[in-house]
Amino acid sequence: MAEAQGKTSAQVILRWHLQAGNIAIPGSSKEAHIQENFDIFDFELSEEEMQRITDLNRDQRFAGY
Q1: Fewer Cβ neighbours under 10 Å: the N or C end of the chain?
Q2: What global pTM score does this model have?
Q3: Alpha carbon 57 to its chain's center
Q4: pLDDT grade, residue 64 (50/70/90)?
Q5: 37-52 b/e with 16+ CB inside 10 Å = b?
């Protein structure tokens, strides 16, 4: 999916969050990654792509805060 969009996996995930109405707070100490995180406003995921990512949900947290 990322390759088809010409984006990275992280950008696709951030775009999914944005389109789903979620709040995502990406973090990085590397300037290139910070700039990459902002480069998600020039594409949209289709409804099918959104659903494919949503279907990955396993109701499992990978980080506890």
Answers
A1: C
A2: 0.84
A3: 14
A4: low
A5: beebeeeebeeebeee
